[in-house]
Amino acid sequence: MNIHEYQAKALLAKFAVPLLKGGVAYTKDEAMDVARKLGGAITVVKSQIHAGGRGKGRFKDDPNGKGGVRIAKSVEEVGQHAASMLGHELVTKQTGPAGKTVKRLYIEEGCDIKRELYLSMLVDRSIGRVAIVASTEGGMDIETVAHDHPEKIVEQAIDPAAGFQAYEGRKIAFALGLSGKQVGAFVKMMGGLYKAFTELDCSLIEINPLVVTGAGDVIALDAKMNFDDNALERHKDLEALRDVDEEDPSETEAAKYALNYVKLDGQIGCMVNGAGLAMATMDIIKLYGAEPANFLDVGGGATKERVTAAFKIILKDPNVEGILVNIFGGIMRCDVIAEGVVAAAREVNLHVPLVVRLEGTNVELGKKILKESGLKITSAENLADAAEKIVTAVKEAS
Predict the structure, then answer these.
(1) Rg of the Cα atoms in the chain
(2) Which of 29, 128, 198, 345 is deepest in the core (most CB within 10 A)?
């Protein structure tokens, strides 16, 4: 689960992470009120969407104008920026061409930036530990830095038994070129970030940029936090921060049925049980010359109702021109999948080619249910056969 910058900063403030003062605003008047309370000569107006690259982004109705993060030198200018940002679609490299509608702003006091650094904490699954990633190249995409200047990235894995240690923080501080009182401040901040990461069950905390001010202070100028969805049951306060407007409606609907769904840009809808098999299915669709329209894992214990819901979600995508169902019945029973496929096809009045490949428990019964349904469903013997049949059917129908 992702949250907005202003929400992340409110959480991090509880862990003594140094931040600037600011407030959220949903209207032009609220933005101006926050600016008045801050009372500084410089105020920053930040669009709040779940996407990076806001500062370099452009609004769809003003492609040559300013981005989603703007500096204002008066309360009136804050109002002008707010009026031109709220309710408008901001396009960044992470939103895609459709962009995202800005519905709230974070109004923050200005900062005398001397240096910009990068800092993050994440779960390094290759070693099974929380890892700190830092770089002197703040304000840039860490992927770009890793590609162009890998020598400028420093990493530090944290022993889960010992937790974050001060010497680890000092090591990173020195690598970032910090000195004097900055080192102590940085180590203290790192301790707070690690505490937040572990206590809130985060999957990512990213500070980009972490800045050194003209006065020598170290401040988190931005904040991004992601949380482990599997842990939200014990963090109802965090779950309440979810902004469903920032999520794909189909993905939100899928979550209600415990379906793992991610929308893609292709034309062949996929319904598979198991993440690995789903990835292989998408790969073989590409191998046969088409593109998958989604990743959809119905899980190992899907019911007839869940399969029907999965079908409806797939068909809500107007780009879908065909559907490939690929099920290996280990825990899952093929007859249950077949019943769900037949029920869904009848309920949604299926109008695109459908190829089904079943294998495993009760496979013969499942194939019999499909055959006797009277519906136009094509059976496949194996994965390659299924991919070839659905790609050919879609091309013939277009």
Answers:
(1) 25
(2) 345
111 is an annotated ligand-binding site residue: yes
pLDDT for 136-192, tens place per residue? 998 877 888 888 888 889 999 999 999 999 999 999 999 999 999 999 999 999 999
The question of whether 246 is a catalytic residue gets the answer: no
Cα–Cα distance measured from residue 44 to residue 175, given in angstroms and rounded to the nearest whole number: 30
The answer to whether 116 is annotated as binding is: yes
Determine the residue type at 207: I
The catalytically annotated residue of 6, 106, 118, 194 is 118
Q: Are 17 and 192 in contact (CB under 8 A)?
A: yes
Instruction: State which H helix or E strand residue 204 sits in.
Output: strand 202-213
Residue the block writes with tokens 């198991």: 274
Q: Is 139 annotated as a binding residue?
A: no
Catalytic residue among 5, 137, 168, 206: 206
Half-sphere exposure of 92 (CA within 13 A, CB side): 21
The pTM for the full model equals 0.80
> Can 206 be counted among the known catalytic residues?
yes
Q: Domains in the chain, please, with CATH?
A: 21-109 (3.30.1490.20), 113-239 (3.30.470.20), 249-397 (3.40.50.261)
